[in-house]
Amino acid sequence: MTRPLWQIAAIRIIFFGLIAALAQMALVVADYYFNDEELGRLLIEQQVDQLGEGQVTNGSTTHYALPDEMDDLFAPGRGYFARVRTVNGIILFSACDAACEEHFLPRTIRPPDFWVRFIQPGKPLHVAGGGTVERDGQMLLVDFATVGDSEGLIWGVFWHEVLDHLVVPMSLLLIFAVGGAIVSIIAALRPVEAAAQAADTLDPLELGEGLPTGTMPREISRLTGAVNRAFKRSGDLIRGQRMLTSAIAHEVRTPLAIIKLELSGIDSPKARKAEADVDELSEFVAQLTALARLEAIKERQYEDTDLAQLCEDVVGAIAPWVLARGDTIAFEKDAEPTAMIVPSLIRDACRNLIENAVRHSPAGTAIAVRVTSGPVISIIDNKPETVAAKRPSDSLGIGLAIVERVLTLHGARLVLHGNGTGMVASIHFNTEIPT
């Protein structure tokens, strides 16, 4: 099953956004990695801020405790040095031997707010620096130095810069970009969804204004307009074909009546056979005419009809013809359902199915017309036991085509299946007027 357009757009925006983020991350890391001065400055800033967090003020007394994450950093031999003192020169913390004093500013002078100097150029970093940190109204002077950066503190600098300048901004951008894209696509496709639902019920012969295109995006509106024009051409073609079929049927009826009249005056078995052929042809022409008239049905012709009474009338009217063909017919009802139908069309459809059952079964077949709840009308033929039942056929001629078209107009459906001794044709109705 295909995904909605908004999902496809969101996935692609996120995918390309992640690619852009990775490329930007690589540029940020490369920019800082090859800029030793900036990298050293950022490292000193980060470590001075972290060392300043160890200040503890109790009233007017200031104490200092090294932050837990830095406990092992200043062990001897690691190459990291630090000194924390007050502005009065009182040393609160020192991890600096006599050799490292040369890296820091003399204790006798007041240092600037921030300073950096490189002990040795290149990598790994050899840099010293310091700055002032204010905590709880107390000012601290913090110095830090690294010789070799054995613990890789610069990677913390990289991560901090990526987080500040890439992860947070890109996350906000992706959230708003994806959200905006989804909202925009859903809003733009809302009229398209409405047009798709309308297309399911669109009849080329009753096109009206066609599919709505007013609020659609221009590209989709052009496609919808092309679909409307295609529907219109199809409707014109169908109407033309049906007009031609109806005209031919009307023109043929009179010559057929004349031929039958002439044949009736001839006393010959061949003339009787020809009369039977003319009768079949006349019936075929009548069915063509009926098929052409179906398109004139309007909603106002639908009535709430008692299906049991309708079928009983059909059976009573067609019984003489069935008996004359050597078959029997009976009416059965398990319920008295009603449905919104055009009575004349459903009456003709039932009659057509009964005639098909008689014509496609041997003499002696018992025909039953049954009405059940649902509502459902079933035409059942039970062939004599000496005759094998035929399998249901999907092609029973133009009569079945007319029945199927009638049922389509009613929103009903025809189901054909075998019952062991014959065939059952069932009409399943809806309870509402079809649109």
Explain what this protein looks like in three dimensions:
Helix content is 49%, strand content 20%. The chain is an alpha+beta fold. The chain has three domains: 118 residues, PhoQ sensor domain (Beta-Lactamase, 2-Layer Sandwich); 78 residues, Helix Hairpins (Orthogonal Bundle), CATH 1.10.287; 130 residues, Heat Shock Protein 90, CATH 3.30.565. The longest helix has 47 residues. The radius of gyration is 47 Å and the shape is rod-shaped. The protein starts with a helix and ends in a 7-residue tail after the last strand. About 2% of the residues have low confidence.
Characteristics of this structure?
435 residues; alpha+beta; Beta-Lactamase; Helix Hairpins; five-stranded antiparallel sheet; five-stranded mixed sheet; 8 helices; 14 strands
Précis, in short:
By secondary structure, the protein is α+β, with helices and mostly antiparallel strands. It has eight helices and 14 strands.
Written as H for each helix and E for each strand, in order along the chain, the element string is: HHEEEEEEEHHHEHEEHEEHEE
Identify the overall geometry.
rod-shaped
Helix coverage percent = 40-55%
- State the secondary-structure class: alpha+beta
Strand tally is 14
Strand content of the residues, in percent? 15-25%
Overall mean pLDDT score? Answer: 80
Please list the strands of the largest sheet in the order they lie side by side.
4-3-7-6-5
Can you summarize the main beta sheet?
5 strands, antiparallel
From the 3D structure, determine the CATH topology of the largest domain.
Heat Shock Protein 90
